[in-house]
Specification:
There is one protein chain. By secondary structure, the chain is an all-alpha fold. It contains twelve helices and four strands. The chain has a two-stranded antiparallel ribbon with strand order 1-2. Strands 3-4 form a two-stranded antiparallel ribbon. Helix 2 crosses helix 5, helix 7 runs antiparallel to helix 10 and helix 11 runs antiparallel to helix 12. One of its GO terms (cellular component) is plasma membrane.
């Protein structure tokens, strides 16, 4: 939805301040690239399965290309439970006149589209903030092509498929969709469709990769209802390495498989993971060794009586062991 900073703002970034979801990509000849390997071929598909099915990443939890326009297996019009309004064909369930009136309430005065100001008013009427997960879901169901903009065809056709002709209808459908996403988990086909859409939605026009800030913001947003245990550590790693040029589509797509299948203690760097994942695992393994060494030192000082004066070693251990 453009290059505005007023809508789809990301949740606060604890290390870099507020990051707008419409940020620009980090580029330039002097930018170091930690993840240079945009795959030889790109695909909208997530990996069907990892070569090795593992538990989780050290926890208890077991750039371009066309987007496939048919979402939810070609049944965008179905309600989340797969049903439609009984006795009515989808095309006749709602009035085009009603949809046009609704569009006119929010459209820009100069362009035949709903832009930043209209989207903010729409969000307000729906009872959500522009950076809420529900608004990402709405953009997905409208198949919006870019941030800060709903074209007339996207808005009207998307609401037709949702079978929603009023603000109350949209509220109801969004609640149903979010409830289904919450219940089915991040391995469901619905969530995978939303996850793939989010990458394309966040791209700046003409770009093939997400900027680092954009990717971090969107990972936080898309995992709102299902947050992988490893996500805070992954985002911390990215924020500590601002020289990463960006996140290509294959890396974005494979991250979902990565969090589902990988155990950092058994990670095999010969598997076909992006090099950015290799760098992350190496970073985490070194961090975990440092944490273990600090814990061992703390225990040793307590056993010989040198640590009775205070909690210095324990404090260092807590500072190092972020989100473990």
């Amino acid at each position: 939805m453009g290059s505005c900073l007023t809508c789809f703002k990301a949740p606060p970034n604890p290390t870099a301040g507020n990051v707008g979801v419409c940020g620009g990509a980090v580029s330039g000849p002097d930018a170091a690239v930690i993840d240079p390997d945009v795959a030889v071929h790109e695909t909208d598909d997530l990996l069907a399965a990892s070569p090795i099915r593992m538990t989780s990443l050290g926890s208890d939890r077991k750039s371009g290309g066309s987007f496939k326009k048919t979402l939810l297996n070609g049944n965008l019009g179905a309600l989340p439970d797969g049903s439609t309004v009984p006795g009515k064909d989808l095309a006749t369930q709602i009035s085009d006149n009603d949809l046009n009136k609704l569009f006119e309430e929010y459209k820009d005065s100069q362009e035949d589209a709903i832009l930043s100001e209209g989207i903010e008013r729409l969000c307000c009427d729906l009872g959500y903030k522009p950076d809420d997960f529900a608004i990402l879901v709405l953009a997905w169901r409208l198949d919006a092509s870019q941030m800060c903009q709903f074209t007339k065809s996207e808005f009207i056709q998307g609401l037709q498929q949702m079978n929603a002709a009023s603000i109350d209808d949209i509220k109801t459908r969004l609640r149903q969709i979010i409830d289904k996403l919450s219940a089915t988990g991040d391995e469901s086909e619905d969530f995978k469709q939303l996850y793939r859409f989010t990458f394309r939605f966040g791209l700046e026009p003409g770009h093939r990769i997400l900027s680092l800030d954009m990717a971090v913001s969107l990972w936080r947003l898309v995992f709102t209802v299902h947050t992988p245990d490893i996500l805070p550590r992954w985002l911390n790693f990215l924020e500590q390495h601002q020289n990463i040029r960006g996140v290509p589509k294959d890396t974005w797509n494979m991250f979902l498989n990565f969090v589902e299948t990988c155990d950092i203690t058994q990670y095999d760097d010969t598997e076909a993971w992006p090099s950015l994942f290799d760098d992350f695992v190496e970073y985490e393994q070194e961090r975990m060794k440092a944490v273990a060494a600090a814990a061992l030192a703390a225990n040793s000082s307590k056993s010989d009586g040198t640590g009775d004066g205070g909690g210095g070693p324990d404090e260092d251990d807590n500072n190092n062991d972020y989100n473990s």
